[in-house]
Specification:
The structure holds two protein chains of two kinds.
Chain A lengths: L25 H13 L11 H5 L2 H22 L8 H6 L3 H10 L6 H4 L10 H6 L3 H9 L3 H5 L1
Chain B lengths: L2 H9 L4 H24 L2 H18 L9 H24 L3 H13 L8 H11 L3 H12 L4 H8 L3 H21 L1
Helix pairs in contact in B: 1-2, 2-3, 2-4, 3-4, 4-8, 5-6, 6-9, 7-9
């Protein structure tokens, strides 16, 4: 049977239990470490921008908005306007052969007849013009167009 | 430096650092060993001791001197220890026995206890106590703190503390006898 253990008769290791002591010089260094921990860390502000930190929050917000708007305005004014080319001038510079090739090769089934322009009726409505012409007159007018030019 | 002098100097921003340095020098050993007895390992005790003094720095200006500075610092240290043990248990989902086993393993690794079988058994027996009872045991047995002061530190009545300590002693004696 085990001998009953009596705490009052036990050799007391006061004021602390028999644990390993902390590292050497621990209590000499702890006050210094504590002082380092409670000191506020220096704010790392880039030189030249320190004045920003001095501004109040609303002023900083207003300043940021102004800078963004100024950026948009500058971008708008500095962007060169797109050159406006008259579509009719551009078409006029395309050789007629290329135009004919393009139109006849397209899926729109355009024939030379569709492209024929009757002198004196260019600005009239096609219906009113053709209704007043006989088939012979139309054929004669179409024959005046060079077929070779069209297929080249 | 007396506590009143430390407090007066701390209130003056010009001498605040000097006062705090004196405070740490005065109480560091008591705080460290109070914490160390609860968490066993030095590294954890070091972290918690620093946390205690950080709290002291942050709240000393509002200290109303309802209790002595010594008692107030002890109360902060006690709460830090109990919170640490609670969070450690919650973090790792450890039941009571596992955290006891973990702290017991640290005891066995402690060089100072090597070869002292009875002392090792005693320390292991103390570890089997619930955290708050262990705290009461440490304050009474090792620090020999008066019950009235213990009541201020723990926020428990003197009668309850006496009963808690009495039961703790019986449990410890039974554990060491059976071991």
């Amino acid at each position: 049977m085990n001998t009953p253990f009596n705490l009052d008769e036990h050799r007391r290791s006061r004021p602390r239990p028999t644990l390993a002591p902390p590292p050497e010089r621990y209590f000499e260094q702890l006050p210094m470490r504590m002082m380092q921990r409670v000191q506020p860390a220096p704010t790392a502000t880039a030189p030249g921008w320190g004045w920003l930190a001095a501004l109040t929050a609303p002023v900083r917000t207003a300043l940021a908005s102004t800078v963004v708007l100024a950026g948009f305005a500058a971008a708008f004014w500095l962007t060169p306007a797109a050159p406006i080319v008259a579509s009719s001038d551009a078409l006029a510079r395309v050789p007629q052969e290329q135009l004919l090739s393009y139109l006849l090769a397209s899926d729109q089934r355009i024939t030379l007849t569709d492209l024929a322009e009757v002198p004196g009726t260019a600005h009239a409505t096609p219906a009113s013009t053709y209704w007043q012409a006989s088939p012979d007159e139309l054929r004669e007018l179409l024959d005046q167009q060079s077929a070779d030019e069209g297929y080249l | 430096m007396e506590d009143q002098e430390i407090l007066a100097k701390f209130r003056d921003p010009a001498s605040r650092n000097v006062a705090f340095n004196q405070l740490v020098r005065k109480y560091q050993r008591q705080v460290y060993w109070h914490v160390r007895k609860m968490v066993i390992g030095h590294d954890d005790a070091d972290d918690l001791t620093q946390d205690v003094f950080i709290k002291v720095w942050n709240h000393l200006e509002g200290f109303r001197q309802d209790a002595s500075l010594y008692t107030w610092i002890y109360r902060i240290a006690t709460n830090e220890c109990l919170s640490w043990l609670k969070s450690k248990r919650r973090k790792f989902l450890l039941p009571l026995n596992d955290i006891t086993a973990e702290l017991g393993a640290q005891l066995e690794a402690d060089e100072s206890l090597a070869g002292d079988e009875i002392e090792l058994k005693l320390q292991k027996a103390i570890l089997t106590l619930p955290d708050k009872q262990r705290l009461v045991f440490n304050l009474r047995y090792y620090d020999e703190m008066p019950y009235e002061q213990m009541a201020e530190v723990t926020g428990t009545s003197v009668g309850a503390l006496k009963a808690s300590y009495h039961h703790a002693v019986k449990k410890v004696e039974a554990f060491v006898t059976a071991a």
